[in-house]
Amino acid sequence: MFRLRSLWLLFCQVVTVLLAVLWVTRTYWPNYSDPAFPPPPEPILVTAVQAAAPSVVTILSRQEKRGEHEDSIGSNWNSLPERNLHAKGSGVILSEDGKILTNYHVISPLSEIIVRLPNGEDHIAQIVGSDPETDLSVIQIDAQHLPVIRMGSSSQLKVGEPVLAIGNPFSLGQTVTAGIVSALGRHGLGLSDYEDFIQTDAAINRGNSGGPLVNLRGEMVGLNTAIFSPKQGSNFVAIGFAIPTSIINYVLPHLLKGEPVVRGYIGLVTRQLSDEFARDLGLSVTRGVMISQVIAQSPAAKAGLRTFDVVRAINGQAVNNLNEMTREISILEPGTVVTVEVLRGARTITYTLTADERPPEPINTKLPPYSSLE
Fold first, then answer.
1. Burial of 72 (C-beta count, 10 Å sphere; 0-12/13-18/19+)
2. Nearest 5°: phi and psi at 23?
């Protein structure tokens, strides 16, 4: 009996010592590797940031600045080069050899473009290609083996899905904010000619322009571009807009080659059909796109389309709103045959025409209360 009691006490003491050793190890050496107690997995947001953040850069411009004692000593000897750099926005690395995507409005006013990598290196950049109508540009720096962003699909986004915005707001340095997709397909904001924005409540501010909006896999699903800013201000109010990858992927091959983006044109000025117009025209539908003007000598004019016709489909693809119609026409190859189905009063008529190349047009003027994020 005495022997069994002694063995039990010994067993208890050994277990107590082992537990104490384990507690001390976990407390003072938290990185200690123990196969029996593996460390918890990284939080999903951390994993997404680790995947995307290394490919996000800052875009700067150089500004002349007087030295602090220039007047007294007649020299600018104490003005450091770093002091002359001013952050204008952000960018995303597309290729290991230094091609970077950003917003056109970030780089267009700059006489010298400087890119700062996450490791602090600065590089002079040259413009490869720009498309003002979608507010996108590709620039190039002389560098190799750079981390590249992974491209995701904006068409798979759902309202309520978590997203992260990465950029350099207010020249603070790389910053990550989190939110959700608030809405999809936002258009009619007057920010660019082709609008299909992702709306998010992730905090994006001045300096975030050109930075990525990423999903929880660390893939870029949009390029942060503008914010809703009451009274022409620039403060974050939980409404930001990003260009989706569905638009980026169409424009990007042209920009990478330095080519202009060729878009289809049929010669219509349109507006969203309203309930009031539908009633006035005696239409049986209340949704669609109404033709407000047919451009003279255009493919649409030659085919016979008229003002107040309501466009219902292009090449068999249903058209429910102005944004869809603009997108369908823009991707037409000039010279291709197009069918346009319209509703004229109570009649449905299908016209056949040949798409032309869209002539150059001025970019829509930015309308308040929206503002870009340079």
1. exposed
2. -65, -45
Question: By three-state DSSP, how is residue 371 classified?
Answer: strand
- Whose CA is closest to 284, among 351, 341, 343? 343
**Residues 105, 209 contacting (CB under 8 angstroms):** yes
Note if the bond before 38 is cis, omega within 30 degrees. Answer: no
pLDDT tens digits, 33-82: 555 556 666 688 999 999 999 999 999 987 655 555 455 545 444 455 55
End-to-end CA distance of the chain: 83
Nearest to 106 by CA among 251, 210, 198: 210
39 phi, psi to nearest 5 deg: -65, 150
3-class DSSP state for residue 372? strand
**Residue whose C-alpha is closest to residue 225's, from 323, 324, 102:** 102
Best CA proximity match to 55, nearest among 214, 169, 204, 202: 214
Q: Are 122 and 115 in contact (CB under 8 A)?
A: yes
Look at 73-82, 150-159, 345-354 and tell me which has the smallest mean pLDDT: 73-82
Cis peptide before 369 (omega within 30 of 0): yes
Give the three-class secondary structure for 143: coil
For the chain, the maximum distance between any two Cα atoms, rounded to a whole number of angstroms, is 112
Rounded to two decimals, the pTM is 0.75
Q: Which residues are catalytic?
A: 105, 135, 209
Residue ranges of E strands in 111-218: 113-116, 122-131, 136-141, 150-151, 162-167, 175-186, 197-200, 212-214
Q: Is 199 within 8 Å of 340 (Cβ atoms)?
A: no
Structure tokens at 357: 């190349």
